[in-house]
């Protein structure tokens, strides 16, 4: 029943995407608006197909219908309801269902948003592109990654349940959907970029049309990545949150190119320049999401996240190649229209800063790409196996991160066109002193070492600049000074600064040790006292839990545990973290020996400022929301270049909202 | 010193605060660098080393991250080696000899592996050089890059004729500014 329903959904989506692409494509070429407008029906059918497949799989999971192979492989009668629901995206085939359903949702959203322009070739070609992408993902579900395979369970069969790591923390229910909303969201601006190339309308129209879509996708991706870091901090138990794992890298690369795009697009809106570059960045972002899916889902690279080896690798690689090739060919074909006669007057200007931003973000993404795929390349070339891990990425990305912080401090105060030294001195004075203040404060509080103290200083500098812009905007416009793209962007910058400072502090001053304690014994470490009070062993539906009760500085008891899941031989630890605004004490059990007089081996990780990573993430999300919120509309007839000298219209300050 | 009509700020007032800022930064950074914290403990060294050694049985994790029995064993072993007074490099090469080069998470800077360190630096240098050349060309190029077609449009507009948008620009988005 569920198999039939699911297959019906997949077939419906596949057929709708296929027929839709043909109909819309034919209508566009033959100039038949009536056919092009049919995209709305096909989009609705694609979404319906995805939703039906999604519901069928959830229904199968909830009713534990083991005649569906996916449920037999990943479900279990013992899994608690929340994790059972989240099992859908806990393995490869199900995650493609989620991907396709979200894609259907975005497709429908585009149709609704552009309902009056459906016959416009730009929108038509964008929908055509999205239908092709949908076609590919429904093909994956129909063929190589079919989630609705049959299985005949023997009597009394119970599945193994999802990977133990994936049923250990509620964040699992939110992190993958957020990430996918981000990944898939970039399909929309990508589709419009392709449409702009095909129609030759490579001006700024498509940029404006997709501005908000890009921001929303970027916001989801940001939140998804940060939730992922949080999840790994709360679950993996080694005391860290970011391990430069291939899957983390795969999500971070499109974020970097997407961030570069969000900035460089402003140059094009303002000056009409960088057209090829912007289109390339968008296409890179989209193809990196596909490449990331390939790297992590085809089993070519080892990763804690990688699902078991599957047959979708060749399909994904082919699709990636098609995307890249199509983009390159289209850009080459439209080369003449993409050339823009503009020029940038001075490197010390807003547009110069955006160029520098792009170079740095590009280098960042390149380092991560090469660090991730280099072992594959070396093995293909001479058969050697090498590994690249945390030390490489830390060393290579730290200088880039510092340079980006510096740029974040300078760029917001730079005017378009050309900045004078006097103007810079005036505008940067306060931010620079805030940066110095941050350095002095950090050293007084005991921070040592060149790199972290420089990072704190640059963080203060960048935060000061963002704060200065916000204060000025709020003074001028009241609460509206916090809304709109530029101001919301400054709030995002503040979030980035919080994360950068927290990252620098926690990675520079992390202290970790292992202790072996008997009941009643205490250990002191890095200014904290840990007392082992006893154990609490119990049986839960899906797992048996060995929990240690530990007091940290008299608070608690905190209960890190070892969990043994019914299905697997694997023992999974669940750390316990005491967070305060200044530092985190994370406990994880390495081993508990004996039951009557238990002996605990405990790993303790003390890191400063961890909580500010999550607060920074929340600030970034808030800033994105503010940026999406419509700011003050620019009159389309206003000149877009900066007013110069005396000819500038007199600025009347808006009355403050009372 | 300065003319009464056009007060210019003295260099001291202009640059004074920035020199002060520079001095403070240098002072703070030298305090931060040279009054070092307590030397790294044996435990810190064990942690640092174990981040650079891959867990031999798991998927791409370092022995610092993984909780597999093999990793616990290696961490214990590293602790012993540190206690015996071996250097970080000695310990790392011990594992490289035992398990092969792939056990080290930091690729060596020799042979083809050096590329992974060099390529990003080269790419960044090329990008910066490219930008520098672009700025040079922008700064020496003549501002007047208008084509004859552009001049015709301007002339037509000045003469008060309505501007005819090109046929495929029905939405007024411009297609080749």
CATH topology of the domain at 42-106 in chain B: Helicase, Ruva Protein, domain 3
Decide which structural class fits the backbone of chain A: alpha+beta
Rg of chain A: 27 Å
**How does CATH name the architecture of the domain at 42-106 in chain B?**
Orthogonal Bundle
Helix percent band of chain B: 55-70%
Number of helices of chain B: 6
End-to-end separation of chain A in angstroms reads 61 Å
Q: Helicity of chain A, in percent?
A: 55-70%
**Biggest sheet of chain B: strands, sense, closure?**
none
**What would the principal axes of the Cα set say about the shape of chain A?**
globular
Mean pLDDT of chain B: 77
Which percent range describes the beta-strand content of chain A? 5-15%
Please summarize the sheet with the most strands of chain A: 6 strands, antiparallel
Q: What distance separates the N and C termini of chain B? A: 50 Å
Report Rg of chain B.
Answer: 32 Å
In short:
The complex is a heterodimer of chains A (658) and B (177). By secondary structure, chain A is an alpha+beta fold. Chain A is built from 20 helices and 10 strands.
